Amino acid sequence: MVISLGINIKTGLDMISMKNEFSRLKNSVYSMNSTVSGGISGSIYQIEQALKKENSLVSDFQYDFVEMKDKRVTFSLKLKPRIYNKGEDIFFMLKEGNNEPILIPAETTDEINYTANIDVSVFDSLEIDLVVVSGDTKKTERLESISSSVEKYAADIQASPMGGSYRYLKGEESLFITNYEYGLFYDFPYYGKALTLKDVTLNIELNGKVIDKFSMQEDRKGRYQHYLKLEGYKIPFKVGDNVYFYVTARDDNGFNYKAGLESWTMTSEGNISPGHDVFGQKEIY
Length: 285
Fold this sequence. Notes:
Immunoglobulin-like; four-stranded antiparallel β-sheet; 17 strands; 20% helix
């Protein structure tokens, strides 16, 4: 019986060892497959890029931000064609936002380097193509897609309701704000000078019509750059009404801002409930 028990234990240990070995072998095969697959994918990508470069009309292309003024951005475009044939005309084709594409002649002094400066709205995305015209033949190639650059020049604003207390005065059909706090903070843009927000204002709309405005003062000691506390404030508020709180401001670059705070609605049951989800909504114009 002792011998039989010893054999069973040995058999069990051998099976565990075989399972562990099988698991290690499976992991090794998986790792090998992943390595091979990754190597093949990398090789295919390199081949595709080499073929793309070989068939490209372009040897080199660069664009640079020059300046932003009056909510428009100037870009400098620089291009070297891979092959230039005498008599060919070189153009940059620009599609700004939803506008129709336009052709901009590329300038050159040596028929090697071609340049152009373009001026576009800071709010629009931009697609840039190369167009090579020779007689009746036209060849095109996408050079770059550039997203709207407004965030590079405008401040990133965040408006937040910080909470408080309010109640409904049923006999007067009004919303009474005992005390409620609002804050605004912002980060400087990526390009250009540090901005200062001006005319920071809390706006209150009732059913789509502005009924009041309050200046939000700088809050140098607190968490927010601008702060306002409403106290003892009353708003006419009937069933079906909607009240909307938001912040507006402007900056040194001429940009205007609007940031949603919150919205409340009076239900048919006489309850104050959240209206449209406006928190975090922002507009720059």
